[in-house]
Design a protein that fits this description.
Distance between the termini: 17 Å
Mean pLDDT: 94
Shape: globular
Number of domains: 1
Helix content: under 10%
Largest sheet: 5 strands, antiparallel
Number of strands: 5
Length: 72
């Protein structure tokens, strides 16, 4: 899973899978869910993210696996 914030567009994309998105559906104003060909959720796109999400802090708890930070 990857979280990518794009400051120039104030959008946050949460990439849940390496699978390709083939269908998107907006579930509320500026929040889009991306599905793969099998109907599985593969990503979440949030426009105007700084107004909808607390971007200043990320808490990760009990995830099995590595935590990697890429400076940007």
């Amino acid at each position: 899973m990857k979280l990518n914030y794009h400051a120039d567009t104030d959008s946050l994309y949460i990439d849940l899978s390496e699978r390709t998105s083939v269908e998107s559906r907006e579930i509320s104003d500026g929040v889009v869910l991306d599905d793969d060909a099998d109907g599985n959720l593969v990503g979440i796109d949030i426009d105007n993210a700084s107004h909808k999400v607390a971007l200043q802090r990320l808490v990760v708890s009990r995830l099995p696996g590595e935590l990697e930070r890429i400076a940007g």
